[in-house]
Amino acid sequence: MSTAPKKAYMELIAGSVIFGMLGLFVDRLEAVPTLSLIFYKQFFGVLTLLIFIIAAGKLSLIMPRRNRKYLILLGFINTATLLTYFICIRYTSFSVAILLLYTAPMYVTLLSPLTLKEPITRKGLAALALSLTGLLFIVDLRAVADGFSNGGEYLLGIMAGVLSGLVFGIEIIVIRYLKDDYSSVAQLFWYTLIGVVLLFPFGAKVSQPILLDNIGMLVFFGAINTALAALLYVSGISQIKAQTGSILALIEPASGIIFDYTILHTPLYLSTIIGCIFILLGAAVAVLEKSPGKFGKYFRLQV
User: Fold this and answer.
1) Entry pTM
2) How distant, in Å, are the alpha carbons of 77, 137, 234, 292 from that of 125?
3) What is the pLDDT of residues 108-155, one digit of tens each?
4) For labeling, which of 169, 192, 238, 291 is most exposed (least CB within 10 Å)?
């Protein structure tokens, strides 16, 4: 049992629940094109982060040091994760999208021997098998087949979701590589800022009426879901044992699915529930198998 203060647990839980509210924001901002939505999420998020960092007198901690090219690479990868994740949300549902995103530990298990020279263990293989089984359950094969005759939107969403898990897995590996050079907050600031630069042309393309109608919610989305959630998450998990924190962070997909079902009234099928159980078990096994500081504290900060 961790001896961390109750405040740390509350911060971690609050951050995870706010992350889980992403689907509600995306639904409310349906009129905003996907790439533009990501731009404004990142823009108002990084602005909030910068204000917090300056107010806390921590500006020196985010100054670029070594491995700058990997920091830039992280910005590209994080933007790709967000793009594929949001496409999956738009064409399937938030419940499906977040579960596909949480297959990331499966890809980390597969890629670690090649990138980090970490051998695949029995627990790693178990996590891989559980996640793959869950993936097979949540993909509606009938909807995929029907998709070929109705424009293939569901199929596109599923493909984007699977890709989001893969890219997220690669992102986790890059973050682990940079952990000795940059703190979690520094990495968060820079990959968010790089995303803003990459997506600026799409932010500028939003029509004035749509932007004015949604500007308040866009500011709230970026400040709350990008900045506040991440700061709460980092503050909480830094005071809790890595394994305990990683398991508690799985509150995010659980709360996201609950919000999706109760507020957005998205149908929740038995196959999705079964897939959810397998994927979350796989994620739990994966994070328990990793040592503190290598995987757990970085598992969900990224998106």
Assistant:
1) 0.83
2) 25, 19, 29, 20
3) 777 777 766 667 677 777 877 887 888 778 776 666 556 555 557 888
4) 291
